[in-house]
Amino acid sequence: MTKKQKKVLYRIIAASVLLVVLHFLPVSGMLAFALYLIPYFVIGYDILRKAFLGIAHGQVFDENFLMAVATVGAMALGVYEELSGGEGEFVEGVAVMLFYQIGELFQAVAVGKSRRNITALMDIRPDYANIENENGELEQVDPDDVEIGTVIVVQPGEKVPIDGVIISGSSTLNTAALTGESVPREAAEGDEIISGCVNLTGLLKIRTTKEFGESTVSKILDLVENSSMKKSRSENFISKFAKVYTPAVCISALVLAVLPPIVLMVFGRPANFPTWIIRALTFLVISCPCALVISIPLSFFGGIGGASASGILVKGSNYLEAMAQTKYVVFDKTGTLTRGVFEVTKLCPSAALLEEHHGNTEEARRALLEAAAYAESYSGHPISKSLKEAYARTIAEDAALAMQEERKEAIQTGQVLQPGRVTDAQEIGGHGVKALVDGKEVCVGNAKLMKSLGLEYEEACDVGTVVFVAVDGAYAGHIIISDVIKDGAKEAILGLKAAGVKKTVMLTGDNKTVAESVAKTLGLDEVKAELLPADKVEAVEALLAAKGAKENLAFVGDGINDAPVLSRADIGIAMGALGSDAAIEAADVVLMDDNPAKIAVAMKIARKCLRIVYENIVFALAVKAICLILGAVGLANMWLAIFADVGVMVLAVLNAIRCLKVPKN
Ligand code: ADP
Ligand code: MG
After folding, report:
1. Distance between CA 553 and CA 541 in Å, rounded?
2. Which ligand sits closest to the CA of 429?
3. Can you tell me the distance from the alpha carbon of 356 to that of 361, in angstroms, rounded to the nearest whole number?
4. Is the CB of 295 under 6 A from ligand 1?
């Protein structure tokens, strides 16, 4: 509990004790009224103040106003009874205020607790980075001040503050806060490392590759902090509803207090104003909308929190709402369903290139790979990374043979490609790359690229993804690479079917043979291959046009050549670890561990959350409607009104807290 909440608790205790004492004191009349005013002000002074300030600022109709009118009215009625010779009741006015405060306190504690839970889950913000100074001592600096390329030291037990590459040391990393995955991951020299992981065992030296503000940690925190700004339809509905509802209730109460007595008077019967005023006040207390106003945002907040604990970042409650109605899931292939880590399986230099190397196949193959790797220098495509890595490995083997220790170290830190050899590199989406390497134009890409450049090329010598290479306008050979389907991709598709998804589709820029074999292995309903980024948008547009109004389409991609589709779909889901920054920005949902099986989990969380929201809406409105009717005809007293308000709120909040728990199956 915070200090403020403790203070409210003490006031609740004080007012309750005073009420009990007064109950047993033999006081009556105006003295009783004066004495009851003490607990009334102890418990209600802040509500009265807020109501008064609200009126002064022209924002009349809120919960504080409802409570103030109801309780002041009840007290005033007591005084009226006393003055007209009867016996006044003052307990009710105080009790309404007391229970309202109990409900508010309960709600504040519950909300605070779930908020803390979520921030604890997201406790990934690093406070400092360690840098070694000239004397070899570690110095703690603000991560914001660390420049790209600086070497930082991460000791066991510390969080990795900035993204980078390990240059020395090896360790196990706990990535639970990022991915929800509890199995630690091994990391060694040369590995890329993302910020937000906790270093468990060894000392790591990391050369940073990004600034703090661009690092994974900062990106994620931004996402989570901004997620509450995007409101779901249910939330918007409730805030609009409250705006209309509260004045409507106040006016109805006024009518209820005045109209029936006047009508009775007209017909010559006793008007009985006090009875009708009590009914009107009861009506006011019953109709307080706090159960909905509080429990609905809390439900969504819980759902988003539960999702982030399992490595699924949802950027707003509107997306959670949309996830619940997903009927079509469209996938990208490379990096989404496949691991995006290609193995070079065959290097096939052209006859011309072979001749250039005097028939030395090894040398020609090396030249082919070298040209491709250099041309791909500036690309972030999975294919590009694989080619560069394959080239780095051959160089490393050479260096090992020649015992060039220095060179070996450079290779392990990823500096194989000599800068300056590549000028003017250009990436052509869905085709490949084009660059000047040593002044020669090298084109690397698929058959489409070769065709668009009007180059002759050989048929591929094997099955797999084919990368054609052309140097100075002449075909120089091709490289066959193959990718592996992600573990769990098949289960992901089955899981989606089980969760009620009607159709799964794969869109890819890769060739038909590869695409069809992947689709068949995974059991996808439809596959479209050899698509350019623009074709992917078109394919998604067609699916969007064909689906029903209440059905949503999700696109899952890694953002490489598919960022436009991510933002075009009803819900864009991006791979967070492998995906590009553009993807994480364009997407509505980010899967931190790149596991497509999390999509079905996200759908389950969304559905559970929405079910709870509807339960609360129906339950609260039904109880209130019944009590309102009973109140209007005089069958409900203040005590029932208090249950309708505070009781319903407590139950709704308890129900909403269930959203935090992620459904297992
Ligand atoms: P996917 O839809 O499978 O994710 P992309 O749209 O990213 O594939 O790429 C489609 C095709 O374009 C690839 O299969 C490859 O043939 C070619 N391509 C794209 N970028 C590159 C690159 N940097 N180097 C070589 N080929 C590339
Ligand atoms: Mg892709």
Report:
1. 10
2. 1
3. 10
4. no
Residue of 471, 512, 479, 509 whose CA lies nearest to 389: 479
* 381 close to ligand 1 (CB < 6 Angstrom): yes
User: Which token pair is 280?
Assistant: 């009107």
Residue 364 tokens, joined: 């020609």
The H or E element spanning position 476 is strand 474-482
For residue 305, report the distance from its CA to the centre of ligand 2, in Å. Answer: 29
Distance CA 260, CA 273 (A): 9
457, 459, 461, 466: CA torsion to nearest 10: 70
> Which residues have a beta carbon within 5 Å of ligand 2, which is an ion?
332, 334-335, 558, 560
Q: Which residues are catalytic?
A: 332
Residue of 191, 201, 211, 245 whose CA lies nearest to 62: 245
pLDDT at 328: 96
In the CATH hierarchy, which fold is given to the domain comprising 340-485?
Calcium-transporting ATPase, cytoplasmic domain N (3.40.1110)
Domain spans of the chain? 1-117, 129-158+162-214, 312-339+486-607, 340-485
Q: What is the topology classification, in CATH, of domain 312-339+486-607?
A: Rossmann fold (3.40.50)
508 and 526 in contact (C-beta within 8 Å)? no
Among residues 340, 332, 557, the alpha carbon closest in space to that of 465 is found at 340
Least confident segment among 38-47, 310-319, 604-613 = 310-319
Q: What is the pLDDT of residue 404?
A: 62
d(CA 584, CA 214): 12
pLDDT of residue 355: 92
- Kindly identify the ligand whose nearest atom is closest to the C-alpha of 514: 1
Q: How many angstroms from the chain centroid is the CA of residue 607?
A: 15
The mean pLDDT value for 343-363 works out to 91
Q: How many whole angstroms separate alpha carbon 370 and alpha carbon 395?
A: 10
pLDDT in tens, 165-184: 999 988 988 877 666 666 77
Burial 104-136 (b: 16+ CB within 10 A, else e): bbbbbbbbeebeebbeebbebebeebbbeeeee
CA dihedral sign of residues 302, 306, 309, 315:
negative
In this chain, the answer to whether the domains covering 129-158+162-214 and 312-339+486-607 adopt an identical fold is no
C-beta of 445 in contact with ligand 1 (< 6 A) = yes
Pairwise CA distance, residues 474 & 477, whole Å: 9
Phi then psi for residue 428, to 5 deg, are -115, 105
Residue 432 CA, ligand 1 centroid: distance in Å? 6
pTM here is 0.75
Sequence-ordered alpha helix ranges (H) in 267-326: 273-286, 290-309, 317-323
Confidence of residue 194 (pLDDT cuts 50, 70, 90): confident
| 628-632: average pLDDT | 79
Least confident piece of the model among 146-155, 223-232, 404-413: 404-413
What pLDDT, in 10s, does the model give residues 57-95?
877 677 788 888 888 988 888 888 888 877 778 888 898
Please compute Rg for the chain using Cα positions: 34
Sequence-ordered list of residues with C-beta below 8 angstroms from that of 480, at least 6 positions apart, any chain:
344, 345, 346, 347, 348, 460, 461, 462, 463, 464, 465, 466, 467
Protein residue with its CA nearest to atom 13 in ligand 1: 510
- Answer whether 589 contacts ligand 1 (Cβ < 6 A): no
On the question of pLDDT at 524 being above 90, the answer is yes
User: Both tokens of residue 585?
Assistant: 């920005």
Which of 538, 563, 567 has the alpha carbon at shortest distance from 554?
A: 567
Record: fold of 129-158+162-214 = 2.70.150
